[in-house]
Structure formats: structure tokens, C-alpha cells
């Protein structure tokens, strides 16, 4: 997932996602050779469930 996709899924600003990732409060992420960040969907789902968030994710 891109940062934009993650932000859209959670209805937050991209700057919020970047802040979470910078402070270690977000899901695991990795950088592509072009320096863009990506999040594996499985890592996002695992992180989301650890938060105790109550809604379903597909």
C-alpha cells in the first residue's frame, strides 16, 4: 500500500501517516529503491487489529 492508500483507508491526512511512521506508531513500512514508502497490506491489517480498532478491513 502507498501512504496515500493507507491515509485514504483510515480517513486521515497523509501527514498523519508520515508522522506515525516516523515515530514508530504506524505499521511496518519499507522503502522502494526510488525512496517511496510502502506498507504490506498484511502488516497494515495486523497493526490495525493491535490498535483494537473495531471496524472490518478487507
UniProtKB/TrEMBL annotation:
It holds the Pfam family HTH_17. Residues 1-49 form the Helix-turn-helix domain. This is Helix-turn-helix domain-containing protein. GO terms for molecular function: DNA binding. Signal peptide: none annotated.
Amino acid at each position: 500500500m502507498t501512504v496515500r492508500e493507507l491515509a485514504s483507508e483510515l480517513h486521515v491526512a497523509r501527514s498523519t501517516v508520515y508522522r506515525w511512521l516516523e515515530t514508530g506508531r504506524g505499521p511496518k513500512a519499507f522503502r522502494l529503491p526510488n525512496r517511496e514508502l510502502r506498507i504490506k497490506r498484511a502488516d497494515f491489517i495486523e497493526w490495525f487489529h493491535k490498535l483494537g480498532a473495531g471496524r472490518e478491513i478487507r
